[in-house]
UniProtKB/TrEMBL annotation:
Gene Ontology MF: a single term: 2-oxoglutarate-dependent dioxygenase activity
Keyword match Ribosomal protein: no
Protein name stated in the entry: Phytanoyl-CoA dioxygenase family protein
Protein's UniProt keywords contain Oxidoreductase: yes
Transmembrane segments: none
Sorted UniProt keywords: Dioxygenase, Oxidoreductase
One Pfam family this sequence matches: PhyH
Stored Gene3D superfamilies: q2cbj1_9rhob like domain (2.60.120.620)
């Protein structure tokens, strides 16, 4: 068998076209149950062993859990990324020769968890720039709007605005004052074309990181919502860090303006990079120094934001009746 695995089915021209036009496409039954078993096992391991960043990112809402760069310490997820069919889908979707893995992220909302994911674009706060970028969102529970299935604003990846990064965990350090305010989409739903799907384990969402997306809290009393996001980059992507973009805490050798490279962003296609793969033989956790630096930056940014009450009000989004 050759790796990464060939998907049980490739994307059709219509599906790729839908992704390009709408900024998101949902593919039913794409992931076979062996790969789904790795997704679920990785999420369950992560839930029982949160990283320091994960503990910081999981807001103080009972039942909400988020963590990133899980594949650096959880072998099931490393194997999923290196050997699963995802890199080949990313290659097709982005029309890229080279495919690198950017990072993974877990989102868990237990039944009744009042933690909406605010409307946001991902690329605005990522320390990269380029066209060939895509995200996959993989639920391992049945999801619909009630238990926090994702909503998308159709075609918003083509809008000219770059919105302030209201990340699900409200990290103040990445809110860039120079960027546009996100409109309060739920207060005026008639102005937008919203897309969402009922999904089952094995289904996958593929979306462009400029497509506005968000979700309600988990309003179901019985159904959990566990999901894993995988982010991919292609040939034209460059490293573009800045003070207001997500810091990378893992080792890599990318330089600003150059291609992503090094152990944090492994090349999977056209062939795996042997050195990067060897570097992942052992789990990596970020140094405490880097994490302390980031949390200090965030505390300073949060204090600055709190001193501007009008700015905070303009970031508000309507997600429940009490928000209106
Ligand atoms: O699962 C969620 O609530 C958020 C997902 C998301 O924003 C993403 O994958 O970019």
């Amino acid at each position: 068998m050759s790796f990464p695995a060939y998907p049980t089915r490739v994307l059709s021209t219509e599906e790729i076209q839908r992704y390009r036009e709408d900024g998101v496409v949902m593919i039913k039954g794409a992931i076979d149950r062996n790969w789904m078993a790795l997704v679920e096992s990785g999420i369950e391991t992560a839930r029982g062993d949160a990283s320091l960043v994960g503990r910081f990112m999981s807001r103080k809402v009972e039942g909400y859990q988020m963590d990133i760069f899980l594949w650096k310490r959880i072998d099931a997820l490393r194997d999923l990324i290196y050997y699963g069919p995802f890199a080949r889908w990313a290659q097709q979707l982005m029309g890229a020769q080279e495919v690198r893995f950017f990072y993974d992220q877990m989102f868990v909302k237990e039944p009744g968890t009042d933690a909406p994911t605010p409307w946001h674009q991902d690329l605005s706060f990522w320390p990269i720039r380029g066209e060939q970028v895509c995200s996959f969102w993989i639920p391992c529970d049945p999801v619909n709007r009630e238990n926090s299935g994702l909503l998308y604003v159709r075609g918003s990846h083509k809008w000219p605005q770059r919105f302030k990064a209201i990340s699900p965990d409200y990290v103040a350090a990445i809110i860039d004052e120079q960027m546009d305010d996100i409109p309060d989409i739920n207060a005026h739903p008639e102005r937008y074309e919203l897309l969402d799907w009922d999904m089952e384990p094995g289904d996958i969402l593929m979306f462009h990181p400029l497509t506005l997306h968000g979700s309600y809290g988990n309003q179901s009393r019985t159904r959990r919502r566990r999901a894993l996001a995988l982010r991919w980059v292609g040939d034209d992507v460059v490293y573009a860090p800045s003070a207001k973009r997500m810091p990378i805490h893992f080792e890599h050798s990318s330089v600003p303006g150059g291609a992503l490279q090094g152990a944090a962003f492994p090349r999977i296609l056209p062939e795996m990079d042997a050195q990067e793969r060897a570097a992942r033989a052992r789990p990596e956790r970020p140094s405490t120094g880097k994490l302390l630096r980031s949390s200090l930056d965030n505390a300073v940014a949060a204090a600055r934001l709190a001193l501007k009450p009008n700015r905070t009000a303009s970031l508000k989004q309507t997600w429940s009746k009490s928000d209106t």
